[in-house]
Structures are given as C-alpha cells and as structure tokens.
C-alpha cells in the first residue's frame, strides 16, 4: 500500500527507490496516488509509462521533456536507470539503483 492506503500493483512498485550517479547525485522514484514520480534536487514531477521499461516526464512551464529508461538484469530485476534529466552532452546518463 502507498501512503494513502491504496493497493499498489507490484509491477509499479518495482520501479521505486533511489538511483545514484557519483557526479550528478540521486534521483528518487516514488509513488504518489498510485502514480510514479521522480525527484532530483528541487525538481519533482509525475512520470508516465511509454512501455514496461521507458517512462517520460513533461514540463509545460519549460517546454521540456525527460526520458527515464529502466535497466533490467537477466533475472528481470531493475539495476538502474538512464535519463537525460542531467546535461551530459545529449547522452542518457546511468544511475545505479541502491
């Protein structure tokens, strides 16, 4: 259950957690009202699924969108994510799940 007491499907909960990059810091993926959100520094927003591995967030205020691609190991366990939320020359940056 999430903080509101709602039943949260297991396939959504597996994405939650802290994802860390030594140089760029931490991205938190968390649940709010059965939806996934990200937080990095003061920036936080809902992310929507594109498929079982890829999600995106879009900010109308900045006309900016961000990608979140979750990386799975051979046992279908999430080991990290790649995102363009930080500026790394147009490449997706890997954040390890802790």
Task: Chart the SSEs and their pairings.
Elements: H1 10-13, E1 17-21, E2 25-32, E3 35-40, E4 43-49, E5 54-59, E6 64-72, E7 78-83, E8 93-97
Task: Walk me through what this model shows.
The relative contact order is 0.20. By secondary structure, this protein is mainly beta. It contains one helix and eight strands. The chain has one helix at 10-13, and strands at residues 17-21, 25-32, 35-40, 43-49, 54-59, 64-72, 78-83, 93-97. A hairpin with a 3-residue loop joins strand 1 (17-21) and strand 2. It is 4% helix and 53% strand. It is globular, with a radius of gyration of 13 Å. Mean pLDDT is 85; it is low at 1-5. Strands 1-2-3-4-5-6-7-8 form an eight-stranded antiparallel β-barrel.
What integer is the average pLDDT?
85
Strand order of the largest sheet: 1-2-3-4-5-6-7-8
Task: Decide which structural class fits the backbone.
Answer: mainly beta
Strand count, sense and barrel status of the largest sheet are: 8 strands, antiparallel, barrel
Could you tell me the number of beta strands? 8
**Poorly predicted ranges (pLDDT <50, ≥5 residues)?**
1-5
Could you tell me the radius of gyration in angstroms? 13 Å
Which descriptor suits the 3D outline?
A: globular
The amount of helix comes to under 10%
Please indicate the percent range of residues in DSSP E strands (runs of 2 or more). Answer: over 45%
- What is the N-to-C order of secondary-structure elements (H for helix, E for strand)? HEEEEEEEE
How many helix segments? 1
């Amino acid at each position: 259950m999430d903080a509101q007491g709602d039943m949260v499907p297991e396939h959504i909960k597996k994405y939650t957690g802290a994802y860390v990059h030594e140089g760029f810091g931490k991205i938190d993926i968390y649940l709010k009202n059965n939806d996934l959100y990200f937080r990095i520094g003061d920036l936080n927003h809902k992310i929507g699924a594109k498929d079982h591995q890829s999600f995106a967030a879009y900010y109308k205020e900045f006309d900016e969108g961000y990608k979140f691609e979750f990386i799975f190991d051979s046992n279908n366990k999430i080991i990290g994510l790649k995102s363009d939320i930080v500026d790394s020359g147009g490449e997706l940056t890997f954040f390890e799940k802790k």
